[in-house]
Write the structure tokens for this entry.
Amino acid sequence: MNRVALSLAGAGAVACLGLGFLSLAPNRLLSGRAVALWDAAGPAPTAAIVVLLALLAASAFAAPSRVQAGLATALLLAAFAAAGAGARDLAGGASGLARVALGAGFWVLAGAAALAVVDGVQRAGGGLGAPLAAAAAVVAGLAAMAAAGWFDALSLMREYHTREAAFAAALGRHIVLVAGSVGPALLIGVPLGLAAARRPRLGGTIFPALNLLQTIPSLALFGLLIAPLTALGLGGIGLAPALIALTLYALLPVARSTAAGIAAIDPAVTDAARGMGMTARQILWRVEVPLAVPVLIAGLRIVTVQAIGLAVVAALIGAGGLGSFVFEGLGQNAADLVLLGALPAIGLALAADLALQGVAELAR
Amino acid sequence: MRALLAAVVVLWAGAAAAQAPVVVASKIDTEGALLGNMIAAALEAKGLPVTARIELGPTNIVRAALLAGQIDIYPEYTGNGALFFHQEGDPVWKDAKAGYARVKALDAERNHLAWLTPAPANNTWVIAIRRDLAGFPPHPCLDDLAPYLAAGKPFKLAASAEFVESPAALPAFEATYGFHLKAGQLLTLSGGNTAATLRAAAEGTSGVNAAMAYGTDGELAALGLVALCDDKGAQVVYAPAPVVREPVLAAHREIAGALDPIFAGLALETLQRLNARIAVNGEDPGAVARGYLKSQHLLP
């Protein structure tokens, strides 16, 4: 019996019964009133969700993990479909200023379904095929519904539609911020990590310095960079200081994982290489670096996800990115505008993590 | 000699600036987005090349960027002159005309910045109460607060820590209008976000029935709140005006001609109405700005 799938199905059922699936607010600023699943979405979508929950619970006892993953994927898409349909009905019967937001019940149900997908995929094993298939099914399903205007009544999509052009630019800028800081961090951090692994005394000065950088709050580091960068003619606001600060934050994990990867190599391996007559340079490039790559990629996953999160704060110094929606939404107390920045950042982090997992798989 | 040298520098910089696009910026808030978009649209309509950096960051970042020449123009509030020139105790900032003249003169002399015509509106700190609060007249003022409190009626104000502690804010209200709020009558939030205080009052969170707000906040009416008028002038006046670097203005004299009629027409009620369309209805600030300017025949 798979207890994980069973408890996730239970959590989804409790959320549907006890929590509001959607919330209806009189306008963008006031808090919403919770609306239950059957009141919002009507009998057919409710029945579909109940049946899928029951099947998911039943699959915990007998069915193979692939069936569980498939059922959970269907449940996840059904939750989104019910939210879109329910939002359209609720918004249709309210004033133009009214806002329909996703409620706690939706988030718990969707979260439980997503975890059940991950659990099923992991139990199925067999490399990256299953996770990629599940991710592709979810993304394709959501994209098809979004393209058909299925979610247009949701407050989140209304925020998106008023900022469609800005959204594409912000997403692109966010990716530039992450790639433009993780790349240089690799170029600087890997040699630093190698040097620290070679000479422990050097490592004793490099790591405390990088640790110290890591503890400076991001907004403070951005602020500290304005004056020196303006003096250098690079500009104290915008892209340059954001890239520098994000690179500095990425250095510690990169250097640490490089050093850890080298340190984990069995001394007998390097001894054997030396016995074969390899030079120090050959040992580094042909033995140590290839053996350290899996640890390095694990570090890179952490760095990339961290940079995607930190780049949100860069909006406060005019660097743009998804953070501009987060801070605009915080200022207006508009939760759905905050989500318009936060959800794509989470999506980016998940996509980057999956992609780097694939790279790690290939490197093995 | 010095003046001549300065004039030469300004002219030379002006000639260089004539080629480059005008960088229009604003603060990262609702009104900043509205006014920044108005400035950008008006300059574009005059045929000027414009680079928009709307909602660049908080006040200190935008001001630093202007002083460093990273941006050329953004809307700022006259009362912030007190902050920029460390004259917080000076009563001049409580007078709209004198405060504007002071910040205009100081910025021209020390930073080569020009303040253009301000809007006849005041985005200062105000205290807003629930419209349904019994015991206030239809157009309530701060003068009505002392008798209300003396009668022992319920009152709880949601405000930022800065509002409660800064001598220019709540203490100035208390001294001018003769009331005193006890610790139990205050709900202090560490952030300075009026969206949060207004929502607390509108929804009665933790018994809150009054909120710190800004004069031009557009949300008040939609949330069923009303601002208490400050007819004794307890507060510093914050009138929004475009601030532009002198070399850029010298190169593009038409900037003043384009923006003066726009800001002269932005009365308090107009700003509240336009801010509400952004904050309450969730409309795009650029579309609201352009739509308003077109409706006033300020944009072709």
Summary: The radius of gyration of chain A is 24 Å. The mean pLDDT of chain A is 89. The beta strands of chain A are 22-25, 33-35, 99-102.
